[in-house]
User: Which sequence fits this backbone?
């Protein structure tokens, strides 16, 4: 459970970064924020419950009806944050999406807001690399690498995955790190 909380924390930090994009596009829709709140409930020590599953599905439904790519990605990131509590140990590349898709989506949203500038996406991926704790990278490495995919989010996710694995291969193995933060504390790194 401690590892799942570290993964969920990583995902929720990225989802929080882009939540305003959805809330500006669809004012008054509480579903993505509810998913983020459910993720924090788990991260801060509560058991996994239906709360995470239900709010994740609701946020993903919100994504399907979002009016723009950026809003869709923001809502999906919130859903991913809530569902991170249920990452399963079966070594499938698809599980990497539950760990890194919100970071890749945040990078894509940054690109979209900058008129499609890929340099912005790369800069945001660099921030995501710095947010990754040794424990998160250890969990990531239990899964096969993310496939490149045909869309920009998939390619960004694959690039982030590759760089995190490569950095781990070059550095000495780290031990624990990246405990759960509570709301109100600095959660930027």
Assistant:
């Amino acid at each position: 459970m401690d590892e799942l909380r570290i993964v969920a924390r990583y995902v929720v930090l990225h989802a929080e970064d882009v939540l305003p994009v959805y809330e500006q596009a669809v004012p008054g829709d509480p579903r993505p924020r509810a998913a983020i709140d459910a993720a924090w409930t788990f991260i801060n020590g509560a058991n996994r419950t239906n709360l995470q599953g239900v709010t994740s599905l609701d946020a993903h439904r919100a994504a399907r009806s979002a009016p723009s790519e950026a809003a869709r990605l923001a809502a999906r990131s919130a859903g991913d944050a809530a569902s991170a509590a249920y990452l399963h140990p079966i070594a499938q590349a698809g599980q990497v999406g539950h760990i890194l898709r919100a970071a890749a989506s945040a990078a894509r949203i940054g690109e979209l807001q900058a008129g499609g500038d890929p340099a912005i996406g790369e800069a945001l991926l660099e921030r995501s690399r710095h947010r990754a704790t040794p424990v998160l990278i250890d969990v990531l490495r239990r899964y096969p690498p993310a496939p490149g995919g045909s869309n920009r989010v998939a390619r960004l996710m694959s690039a982030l995955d590759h760089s995190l694995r490569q950095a781990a291969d070059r550095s000495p193995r780290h031990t624990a790190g990246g405990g759960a933060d509570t709301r109100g504390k600095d959660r930027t790194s």
